[in-house]
Structures are given as structure tokens and as C-alpha cells.
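Checked the freezer inventory, then went back to the computational side. Two predictions to log before the end of the day. The first one is the construct we discussed on Monday; recording sequence and C-alpha cells without edits.
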Amino acid sequence: MSKNFKPLYVQLAETLVKELKAGTSPFQKPIKENGLPAFVKPINPITGKGYSAMNAINLALKGYDDPRWMSADSASYAGYLVKEGSKGTLINFPKKSEIQAMRTPDGEKIKGADGKTLTRTVEFDRVINEKAFLFNGTQIKDIPSLQEFLEIAAEGKKLSPLEQAEKLISDTKATIVHGGQEAYYDKIKDEIHLPEKSTFENDTKYYQVAVHQLAHWTGHETRLNRPMEGRFGSLEYAKEEFRAATAAMLIGGELKTGHQFGSHAAYAGSWARMLKDDPFEISRVSSDAQKIANFLLSIGQKQDVKQTTTSNDTLTKGDVIAYNDTFYTVLDKRGKSFEMEKGDTGERFKMKPTDNLFAGLVAARNNPPVQQMKPEEVPTQKIGR
């Protein structure tokens, strides 16, 4: 690879700086000229899995309406071919395993009755950082039509996008105060303030704004505990807005409600300067936004689990748990050990069910802190106006 090759975070930061300055970024223009969302959740149609925040943003900036992305190898294994002359899009990811083609002793690929190459998954001893180039569904020959893919994906969906958004908001049990003209999160009172639903252009706009404020709500010390002390107009304030806007975009893509940041032009300028001065900030923003999205999207799943089981004495991949003034994220479970991440430092470690910390995390996850009502005279700290 060329010595002049730029890391993904640098490429993405430079692209976003240009688009933020031009007013064409997905944050400023959530709807494209053709009327379709500027951000759709990128997905691997073979595995059914999505892509992490930084990769998802990078893929979305390519402007395709088709959400399907895969590598040339994945396409080949599925019996598809990348169209000649197609240019791949770079992603970075932690690689824990690899899908390999099954081969004969002579090295020939083994194919099934349907003509597709048989594969196997090989687990690595340790996680490695990997690069790959993906191709959009429109760049691949013989792949089923997008309409067919979307129809299959929609099968079994019981709730509409707006019903999913309503359920997400309800499941958080966040305190939401309706009234007034402003939408903001008050960290001191731990309250979300929203105008009355009837004042919004439509229900979709209401849920988009509500999700954005819920993203701020996750920063409270009893949840993800992010720094949120900056005053309106400060760099710290702009950083929190960047994280909330990115998380709202990810969640809107997941729920298919879209996102709407509004006409906050001042933030765009601050974000552009931020990324120009420190391109790696896009990696930090993406990481925090992914944690926010995981936290909110998993709340409903946890509620469903609680309704079907009387007790849960283990941890689940994706759990984000506030415990002893920090939070822990369950990244994966391998055998009897859990791969964990502590706080926002990125510190990773392995934990066994016999460790004392394990019991504490299970108890904290099953019994989250109860929110207490605050007296009206408590001062406010508006975030996300």
C-alpha cells in the first residue's frame, strides 16, 4: 500500500470538513435531492450485520441509495461479481474471525449444490485491526434487486418506524416535560424539554427531535457519564452536539425514521474547525455516538427480556452498565469469559463470572439507579438547544 495512503479517520475528516463548509453534509441536508434519506443504515446482506459508526458515516457519504455493502470476497462466496471498474470504499474494523473458502487438498474451492462456494469461520487468538474495501449493491452483478431485499427484511416487523420510536422513548423512562418553544436536555434536573407534539410539522419531526435529546440524556453521570459542562457556544458544547447529532443519525437509520438536526449553522462551522485541527476527533465522535446508539437501542431489548424471564444472572453482548462512577460495555463473550471495555478511555480487559466485578455489574444492570424528582427551584443546565 502507498506510503502516502491516508488513514480512514483522516480521509473521513477531510471529506466532512468540505461538506460541512459547503452545507451538504448529512447533518445539514438529511434528505437528498431525490427525496430519499441522506443516511441509510449500511448492512452486509450476507451476514445481516451493520457497520460501526465511523464506517457507516464513510459509506453513507458515498451517496448510494442501496444500503447493501460487501467485500469482493463476500460477493464471490455468494455467487456475485463486482462490476468491472468499480472503486471500493475503505473501512476499518476489529477482526476477531475470518470467513474462508473451503478448499480441496489441491486448493480448489468447494461449492455446494446451489453453485455457491462453501465457507467456514476461523476464530483468531486475538483481535486485530483490519482494513477492507467494500462495494455497494449497485456495483455488484447478479445480486437480488433492492426491492426484493427490502421486502424480505421487512417480513415479521410488527411495529412501524414511528411506533418503534415511541417504544424506544417509552422504554427509556426518561422524564420528558412538554411545553414552551425550546427542545433541550437539562442535565441538572435530568429532564428532557420538548414543545408540544402538536406544534411539530408532523409526528416524524417530533420523534427525530426527541431522539436527539435522548442522545444528550445518555450523557448523565448515571448512564454513559460524558463531559457535558460546556456553555452554549463553547467548543465543549459543540463536541457534545456533534456526538448527539451523530447518534441521532445512527438511530434514525436503524428505526427508519430519519434524522433532522435543524438549522444550527454555527455547529457546522465549529465541527469543521474541530476536524481540521484534529482529524482524529471524528474517531472519538464516532465511538461515543456508537455507544449512545447502542445504549438507547438496547433499552427496549432489555425490557423485552425482563418481560419473558424472572431473573437474569449473566451479561449480554452490547450491555452498557453504569457502575461505581463509570460505565462498562460488554463487547463480546467467548467461552466463559467476557471481553469488556471500561469508561470512555477504550481500556479493554477480560472478566470471568467468578470475578467480584461480574456480580456487581449484573446487579447494577438488573437494578439501575432510580431517578428521583427534583424540586422546581433547582437551577438548570440546558444542553442541545
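The second is the one RB wanted added to the comparison set:
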Amino acid sequence: MSVLLETSLGDLVIDLEVDSCPKTCENFLKLCKVYYYNLNAFFNVQKDFLAQAGDPTASGTGGESIWSYIHSNSSSTTTDAVPRFFPPEITTKLKHNAKGTVSMAVAPSSESGISGCASQFFITLMDNAEYLDGVHAVFGHVVEGLDTLDKINDVFVNRDFRPLKDIRIRHVVILDDPFSDPPGLSAITPPAPPTRPPDAGSGHVVIGEDEDPLTENIPEDEQERQRRLAAAASSALTLEMVGDLPFANVRPPENVLFVCKLNAVTRDEDLELIFSRFGVIMSCQVIRDKKTGDSLQYAFIEFDKREDAEQAYFKMQNVLVDDRRIWVDFSQSVAKANQFWSNDIKRGLPRTDSKAKHGYGGREDLVQTRRYRDQDTSRREEYGMVFDVPTRRRRSASPRRDDKRDRDRDRGKRERDYDRDRDRRRR
């Protein structure tokens, strides 16, 4: 039988000892059901000792059992008094020997003079607190959320052990309840959880759990900028986890330009010649379709210096190239920083593997152009074309003409030349 406490510092899942402490567990579960603990504060946090909650007044003197709460909130005119406390169920087999032990705070009853339990409980923040055995009644253990307990343990408190910044139970979810409801419980159960802390206006709160004193004097636009940076960092971490980024703090290179709206006939050599007047170009790649070899009409140009890339960015915007006005921007791609192609990360294939040489820029349907493949002097006579054709040796290779007419030739003539050359070799 379990209960989930959603606190301002994280979630806590508590398993209850319903067999050993049935009355205590019933009291706790039914108080949770009527939203008694919602928006309650941890009013007593002692480092490496305990964190105490369950008092609506956050003073350490309030709280009552579920049976007393039903009686005090019902419209019944009966005069029979219902005790505020009930006798603690202290068993010898349940001890305060582990961090995360949940125990009812046992205090002397002002009505009868005997010890009793009401609604206040605490969670131990240390191991081996056996000196609490026999004094307070253990009824559960934290099974999930020990990291939340560490956060609670590290908060700053005043001399009364009240956290300087509120820690509140935002919501309580009953995961399993084996007990039937006591008479009158449904009549006093609120239709919705409370939206106002029960101790509001008491003067105990120093800093609200939803307040940040470090940003009170920061302008709104600066706060918005910080929120955007935090959101961007979170998104980058997610992309790193799924493999889209090599690491979360990676930044796009400042010396690489992205050029789009190109004419389909524009080649790598054309762009490099045009942009080389701004500085030394390390690489210039027109991205092509893997299957057809057609230009996808965008390219990446890497300069040796960032200043050269900036100058080209300002000078080449909307410039006419091959009857097309190109668009120039700084590249936002980080694929160059990765040691593996993005589409091979999912397979775990290194870049040097033969199976990993398909794809470019994270896409299966793209391929690097011949000029920027690995150069091997022993294989200079191979075609190295961008479409899917078998690589064979050719007897002769006439140099490619670089005039304007060559750029306007269609791809079909090159394919026919290749087929004719292949048939000649077979004969």
C-alpha cells in the first residue's frame, strides 16, 4: 500500500506497513484522501536527522486525527467528544534504522495527558536512528525519492529549523488504499484540492516555494532570456541523449556558410571560384541526391577564417549566380563536429566501416561529391560518381571541359557515354 507525495523539491513514494500498523496507516490514508496534507509545509528540517510535516498551522502544535477531523467538520449535533489523538502503534520489529523511515510524531495529549498521534509525521534523513525506537511510531518507508530527501537535507534553515525557502507538499496521490472509509468521510471531502496554503498569513513563511529571491531585482526581459537559455540547454541535452548532437554544449562553427536557392547546374567549383575572393576556402560542397546525383540546390562553404566567412555573408546575400539569387546564412549544422555520420550513430557503425559510408549530413539519401571523398592515388582511374553505379576501370578518360556549355549538358548524355564505354570493354 503506497502513497505518492509530490513536493516542491521532488516526489516521494511511501510504502505503508498496513499489517503492523493498521490504525496509523488508515489515519494517514484517510487524511490524504480529504486533502489534509495538500500544501502543508515541512516546518522542521534538521540536517542529517529528520524532516517533519503534517501540521496545517506549520507551528508544530497543530493537527488532528481523521476521526477528530470528521467530527469537527461534520454537521452532527452529537455531544460525544472524539479525541484529537489516538494511541501510537509502536512495534519492536519496525525500527528507525534506515534513511527514509516514515514515523508518526508522538506527543503528550493535552486532553488526557497520555501520549498520542494525530496528523504530524516525519521522515528520517539518516541511518541508524535507533534512539527513536519506542518513542515514535514507524508506519512506512520511502521506496522512491531518496534524491529528494537529499535535497531536503541540504536546505538552509533558521534557528528554529524552519527552511528559509518553503518546502511544501503540493499534492498527494493514494496509490492503494485497502481500508473502507469511516462514517461521514465522504460528506466532508472537498470537491477539489485546496489552492491556498493552510498556514497562509501566519507569518512563518520567509520565502515562498515558488519564489526566487535571486531574480527579484532582475528586469523582466533578462529573466525571460535566462528562461530561454535554460529551455535551450534542456533541449540540447535531450538531443544529445537521442544521438542528434555529439554533446549538449556543441555550437555551430562560425566559419561555415549555408548557401541555398542555388541553380541545379551550379557546381562545387563554381561556388568555390565565386566565394574564394573573400579568403581561403577549406571545403565547398553542393549537396546532391544519392540515387539521382541531382543537386538539392544548397551547399556548405567552409572558410579558413571566421572573418572571411562574415565578409562573404554580408557581400553575397541575394547575389545572382547562374540566373538565381542565392541566399546566404551561417550554418547551424554541427555534423562536422561529430566523428561519426549522424545516421550511423543509431547503428553504432564507425565512419571507417564500409557499411557506414552511405549517407551524408545525417541523411540516407545524400552522398558526398567525388571531389570531397577520400583521395587514394592507387584508385585515381575509378569513376567515384555520385549515383549508384558499379565502380570499374576505364581505358581512357578525356579531361572535363570547364566552359559554360558543359554545365548545361544533361546527365543523360554522360550516362550514354558510360554505357557505350562499358560495351566497348566487353567486346
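For RB: Confidence is low (pLDDT under 50) at residues 339-357, 368-402. The chain has ten helices and 17 strands. Let me know if you want it refolded.
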